[in-house]
Amino acid sequence: DGGITQSPKYLFRKEGQNVTLSCEQNLNHDAMYWYRQDPGQGLRLIYYSQIVNDFQKGDIAEGYSVSREKKESFPLTVTSAQKNPTAFYLCASSTRRDQNQPQHFGDGTRLSIL
Amino acid sequence: GQNIDQPTEMTATEGAIVQINCTYQTSGFNGLFWYQQHAGEAPTFLSYNVLDGLEEKGRFSSFLSRSKGYSYLLLKELQMKDSASYLCAVRGDNSGNTPLVFGKGTRLSVIA
């Protein structure tokens, strides 16, 4: 079945450590996105990529980095510069063909600080 | 700027009808989406409106008024499994590649 796979489901980070969240899709979608969700805050955009080897900052990019070397993959690194990383991270993808196409989401990664 | 407002919480009774409102002020508009999100899970797509009027899909309907910057999601014959957060999101331009701007979501509790 086609879909978006995020791993791991739960992740713990030590102080000063960088961690990488994986996102893979087999929907042949052009665009991929990373959102952060905190209680009562809705979804906030971290980074997005519309084509391979290109990406743009979202509203809260500080302390995060991404890469888009393959169409299927869009990993997110939470760096030690992100002082409050505890949140639910959601990856999404969409096709550019039609404006009525929704974004499809992975099951999320819950990140906590040890 | 981009601003999307929804009520934070709502409670409704099993079998009843509930209307969740969403108002938006965005720099562009090319469609409004509603998603359902159960606690700890991914959002799932419910409906899409780009023209004024009502779109019906089974127990769920969504309405849009572009001139008023207003939408609502109507849920009929409420079931306990409808307890979830409902997210309103706007697409600003006419490409499927553009990120959606999300409201903070409305947490709906369905009680017996």
Total helices of chain A: the number is 0
Q: Mind telling me the C-alpha Rg of chain B?
A: 14 Å
Computed CA radius of gyration of chain A, to the nearest angstrom: 13 Å
Characterize the main sheet of chain A.
7 strands, mixed
pLDDT averaged over residues of chain B: 93
In short:
Chain A is mostly beta strands and 114 residues long. Chain A has strands at residues 4-7, 10-13, 19-25, 31-38, 42-51, 54-57, 64-66, 76-78, 87-94, 104-105, 109-113.
Please give the structural blueprint.
The complex is a heterodimer of chains A (114) and B (112).
Chain A: E1 4-7, E2 10-13, E3 19-25, E4 31-38, E5 42-51, E6 54-57, E7 64-66, E8 76-78, E9 87-94, E10 104-105, E11 109-113
Parallel strand pairs in A: 2-11
Antiparallel strand pairs in A: 1-3, 3-8, 4-5, 4-9, 5-6, 7-8, 9-10, 9-11
Chain B: E1 3-5, E2 9-13, E3 18-25, E4 32-37, E5 44-49, E6 53-57, E7 60-65, E8 70-75, E9 84-91, E10 100-102, E11 106-111
Parallel strand pairs in B: 2-11
Antiparallel strand pairs in B: 1-3, 3-8, 4-5, 4-9, 6-7, 7-8, 9-10, 9-11
Summary tags:
heterodimer; A: 114 residues; mainly beta; 7-stranded mixed β-sheet; 4-stranded antiparallel β-sheet; 11 strands; globular; B: 112 residues; 6-stranded mixed β-sheet; 55% strand
Provide a descriptive summary of the structure in words:
The complex is a heterodimer of chains A (114) and B (112). Chain A has 114 residues and is mostly beta strands. Chain A contains no helices and 11 strands. Chain A is globular. With 112 residues, chain B is mostly beta strands. The model of chain B has no long low-confidence stretch (mean pLDDT 93). Classes of the chains: A mainly beta (114), B mainly beta (112).
